[in-house]
Amino acid sequence: MVGELLWIWRRMIENGIEPNLFTYNFMMDVLVNSMCIESAERVFDVMEKGIVRPDVVTYNIMIKGYCKSGKTRDAKGKLREMEMKRVGPDKITYLTLIQACYSEEDIASCMSLFNEMVEKRLEIPSHAYSLVISGLVKEGKCYEGFAIFDCMVKNGCKANVAIHTALIDALAKSGNGEEAMKFFERMKDEGCEPDDVTYGVIVNCLCKTGKLDLALEYLKFGHEKNIRVNAVVYSSIIDGLGKGGRVDEAEKLYEEMLDKGCTPDSYCYNTLIDAFTKCGKIDEAVTLFKRMEDVGCDQTVYTYTILINGLFKEHKTDKALEMWDMMIDKGITPTPASFRALSIGLCLSGKVARACKVLDELASMGVIPETAFEDMIHVLCKAGHVKEACELADGIVDRDHETPGRVRTVLIDALRKAGNVDLALKLMQSQIGIQYDRWGSIKTRDKFRNLFES
């Protein structure tokens, strides 16, 4: 009843009754919790000009209001105002600001505020440690995160499961799988019980380090302990099994996932589709792709890229082109990786002109990699299609582009290996009129020299 509250306050002022500090703070808190930030500001201004001045609680309420409304800069301004007016900020002040900065991924400000707390010898709550450590490890600053953790332990503050999990995840992602497992054991020894997120991180770590059997054991252990196993955990193991060539086991685990009522996400489908395409089970991959559409799971650009690449490897060029057209029709913007899969597939299928046409169509979208022509020429040369590679290089010149030195090197090397020395020399001689510093790399000139000497 904010309107009635403000009416009573005005009546008090009109009747010469000065509200006390408790009344003001109570009223400010109600206004902030009701997201009436402007009204709270007006009450705060009245306090500053009146007899009852704002205290640390008043400032904390106002800072909370600014943070809730996304005005973090104003909240920081209130902190500096407190210091100017000699109102000492407390742990609530800093925790509120650290939380807001963390939400905005401003980890530098989190660290700055944390350091202020240390300098002022304020008690640092466990949640503040958790936010700072999580923020640091998210930015890949694993060692800095552990430094804060050591500081936390030294100050007698017990780390919660979220802090332990964040550090385990940081170690795993930085390639220190063994250290991650040791820290996991330390966590259990210290009496901190892992939760479903922790087990998910551990399983993911084991899969990335190739310890798939141990990951499966942890999955089984989770079921026995009634720990909720989510799609991320299943997807990690399915991905590991697929990359390890154990596709049948990955498929069985996918079926188990469905039986237990765990809904696969795009990542899970993509990992299994990728596993199918890599072992030549392209029909199963396409079936899974259609199932994604049936259950309403988003087919991402990565999904299409995997299938296009797989279909080209199985020499199903028309199906790959259908998949590409379907992706474009759905309004999914191609990435450089998806274009690379299409262009290389077309080139190896002898459809160089089609690849160039797609390149021209997508040039305006800004998704074509700078090395697109170079990649295509390199693939053609590697596959022995030297003639097509030369034609593509001519096409670059026709588009008013100079053939890059690296491309000339690839072409000359391919021509030499194919025994077509005359054409290699011709390509070299066509460059004689170009200034020396535009001949390409030293490697290119060495190829020219070797041709002459032979």
UniProtKB/TrEMBL annotation:
It comes from the Eukaryota. Pfam families: PPR, PPR_2, PPR_3. Keywords: Repeat. InterPro entries: PPR/CCM1_RNA-binding (IPR051222), PPR_rpt (IPR002885), TPR-like_helical_dom_sf (IPR011990). PPR repeats lie at residues 20-54, 55-89, 90-124, 125-159, 160-194, 195-229, 230-264, 265-299, 300-334, 335-369. This is Pentacotripeptide-repeat region of PRORP domain-containing protein.
